[in-house]
Design brief:
It is built from 13 helices and eleven strands. By secondary structure, it is an alpha/beta fold. It is globular. The two termini are about 25 Å apart. This is ABC transporter substrate-binding protein.
């Protein structure tokens, strides 16, 4: 199995999406959708599945187990920083799938294009959702404030410095939090930072408040440096992230089969990892130099399971409701149909993987 990380990717978003749209549309005319669950075995010996991730700990933790051992295809990892670069990498054929991309990112890219994408020409699609194991205690994301900022409620954000990165779930949560308090971006001092820099700036007190991923600030929440103001679910946000793929990769007979196999393995791994935070914590110690205690907090905060996103599933229904709220909050510049950026063909592999007992 190959595990070669790619260099940072810089691609013109307009050019990338234009090329990807043309390719996806042409592919939809040329042939019917291939089935990722075809009965006939597919030779994947020459296939390389390129996977984008947001944190090194993601790769380190799963590679410390046997869940990816013996894949009939090679895996190439790419470490990306934020929703925008990941959407560009998918649209530019630099990666095949993203593990951890904001579930809102494909719909936002559609709403920001010249015309909304359709199910037939969308160049990227959500193929699975990562659902927090304990949404009440460990929501995936939250709005937090530095202990010295004097912020106790969302209304207290008024006039304060408020940081987030554009394009994904953190951006969405930032606007939903303001909307819930009757505020807009005009009522705060917005600081646009990268995904990696946002949590660092908040912990250092360089900004007063920010929406952040819980696992990235678990240690600062535990020691009181940061104060939790609101969880994602408190402002009507499901708190999911996604596995999103290039439509051309999903529909390719060989890449589609590799993606289906990977999702099955991923579902098994995530179910196993959610029950063994002590094992996952070792990767946080290694990659983020956290103490054992803080690493365990991070691992528990990151515990998720993989769920299908096919129409009619609970995850899909929550996404539809959230999409409407995000239009109202101004995250999407115009109404968008979440169903157009979803492909549920891998539901069987996901469900069977999640239910398979592991030792």
């Amino acid at each position: 199995m190959s595990t070669v990380s790619s260099r940072p990717i810089r691609v013109s978003r307009r050019r990338v999406l234009g090329v990807a749209l043309a390719s996806a549309f042409a592919g939809s005319l040329a042939a019917p959708l291939s089935s990722a669950t075809a009965a006939e075995p597919v030779d994947l010996s020459g296939v390389t599945l390129r996977i984008g991730i947001f944190e090194d700990v993601t790769r380190d933790a799963i590679e410390a187990t046997d869940f990816l051992k013996g894949t009939p295809y090679k895996i190439q990892w790419a470490r990306l920083n934020g929703a925008g670069p990941t959407v560009q990498a998918l649209g530019g054929n630099a990666i095949d799938i993203s593990w951890g991309l904001s579930d809102t990112a494909p719909a936002k890219a559609s709403a920001e294009d010249r015309q909304n994408w359709t199910a037939q020409n969308a160049p990227i699609k959500v193929i699975a959702l990562l659902k927090p194991l304990d949404e009440e205690k460990f929501s995936n994301s939250l709005i937090a404030a530095h202990k010295n900022a004097g912020i106790k409620t969302l209304a207290d954000l008024k006039g304060k410095t408020y940081a987030y990165n554009e394009g994904g779930n953190i951006n969405a949560l930032a606007l939903l939090g303001l909307h819930a308090a009757g505020l807009t971006t005009k009522d705060v001092q917005v600081r646009l930072l990268t995904y990696d820099a946002t949590s660092t700036a908040l912990i250092a007190g360089a900004v007063n408040a920010a929406p952040v991923t819980r696992a990235r600030v678990a240690d600062a929440l535990a020691d009181g440096t940061l104060v939790e103001i609101a969880r994602d679910i408190d402002v009507g946000f499901p708190g999911y992230v996604s596995v999103t793929g290039r439509t051309a990769a999903i529909e390719d007979p060989k890449l589609g089969a590799a993606i289906g196999d990977f999702l099955n393995r991923l579902a098994k791994y995530l179910r196993w990892a959610s029950a063994r935070p002590e094992d996952v914590a070792k990767s946080y110690v290694k990659t983020q130099q956290l103490s054992q205690k803080d690493a365990l907090n991070a691992a528990r905060a990151k515990a998720v399971t993989l769920i299908p996103v096919n129409p009619g599933s609970p995850g899909f229904d929550k996404e539809i409701v959230a999409t409407g709220k995000l239009v109202t909050a101004g995250f999407y510049p115009r109404p968008v149909d979440f169903a157009t950026v979803v492909d549920g063909r891998f539901a069987e592999q996901i469900v069977s993987g999640d239910k398979v007992p592991t030792n």
